[in-house]
Request: fold
Amino acid sequence: MSNDIGNRDFEEIIRQKLDSHAVPVPGGWEIIKKSLTKRRRRRRMYFIAVSSVAAAAVFFAAVVELPRAPKNPDLPPIVKVEDRPETDLLPKTPPIDDKARRNIDVPLRAGTQTTVDAGDEKRPDAELQATVLALNRDDNGKLAATAKAAAAVLPSTVSDTPPLIRKGSVRIAAELPMLKMLGTYESDSDRYSGKLKPGAAQGTAQSVAQSVAQGTAQGDAAQTKISAAKRLPETRSNGWIASFTVGAENSQAVNSGNTQIVAADPILGLDENSKEYIKNTYKNEMMIPDNVAPDFSLPLSAKLSVRKSLSRKWAVESGVNYTFLSSKYQWNRNTVKQRMHYLGIPLNAVYYAVASPQWNIYVSAGGTVEKCLHASLSSSERTTQIDVRKLQWSVNAAIGATYKIARNVGVFMEPQIGYFFDNEQPENIRTAWPVAIGFGAGLRVSL
Amino acid sequence: MEEQLIKGCIKKNIRAQQQVYEKYAPMMMSVCLRYVRDRNIAEDVLQDGFIKVFTKLHTYSGSGSFAGWMRKIFVNTALEHLRRNDVLKYSTEIETAFYIENDNVSAIDKISADELMQCIMELPAGFRTVFNMFAVEGYSHAEIAEKLGVREGTSRSQYARARAILQEKILKLK
Reply:
């Protein structure tokens, strides 16, 4: 019992003595502050990345997919010839003679099914049927049904190339695999899904056509298009690709622990005249003490660019990008915010390391020149403009992946690394940490 | 005042975080040093602990004292470090330890907190850890056994031996 009381006394005394014991910790806060800031920037990076992808998806849905959705649910879906494998487009039935070739020039209502004779000499094995679904939207927005002469719908024409009939920007797509003449549809739903009634002896040819005005078969064009699509999705048309990118750089990711910008000489690498110029122009004007280090925010950028394919593997890219840099000086109870807006022109060489019809991986490298359009320092009391005369030059490299989400549209993600040269810019995150790691994401559209 | 600081920290206000750090860092450094003898490592543990405090502050219910809640975080952070570096596994075994009667408790009362800290820091890592957890933090032997992955009996015997060595050191100070 006395031993227990003794134990409790012992532990109680120990606790009392050590409870408020303290050991001074000089200078620890700066490290913790940097660590916390870095975590926030990393979270912001993830947020930006996810938002970019989400925005790209929404953009795609709103701008690309929705207008393509069928307006009338009763109409059969439009089948894209280009997306089918080339082998599927080849005829599976023996060709018939030229007499079978026949134009159809009969106005039809949308969804109407009609039977077309194969010629004067009817085929003994089956009655040829063709369903021509023609949708033509006139100026009043009404659906008019017009079917025009798809020579392609007849089997005799399919022995050469898959037909693609064009009139201006309007396209007729004839779905050749449907000309298999194996049977008839069992039901409407089957008709829309392309499922044929098994064992039916009656041959059926169906052409799914869109916007028929005056059909002209252009098999060569279609074939060219198909082979180009197989070659490289982004270079399949005329080799031009436009892209929209949003991104951010995180210089601290590669420069953590570098605290040399703090205090004594906040403007590094400039000659004395430049230092005096910059200090006199804005820091002194805002009464910012020399030993106050700025807190830099994550640089944010948006870029519109075009890429021109030079060959299967190489492309050049240029465009225009906008970057927003901000930082904050805080001392005692004072806060001064610095905001800088840059507009730049990048020029990059792009090499496609891996390319498939659905996706590709590429590396790019090049340089960018940027002009500061507007820079200012502002406190609660006053604002002063910073006159930035020199251009900011930088070099950069990136590795990216593009995933094709539609025929002409792809989403991409692109980690980047860049180096910003010392071009006498006002103190900003790039002058403090010239090496920056960034992340970009966006949409690419083949033109 | 403290409530305002906590709210500010939850909102990621950097000034509030700095004030919390300045207020509690010396006290928490003492906790870290009791577990991790090396000052540089203790500073690392202190930084890790504060990062945890600031990122998990929203889980503080407000029922107990804020300092007590923080102390637990720093103890756990220090234990994580010891476990990660196998310090507990390879702690020096004390072959001879002797027990000093409780009437010598008064000797502890006569030394300063700094002297007591120094004596605790000189204990081997395993003994020091169990001693800190039981005598200072108030964990039961069952809790210590669970946290350190040892048997409850091991915790009891380690504590008894740690206490004996500590008392011997204190007597030598006098």
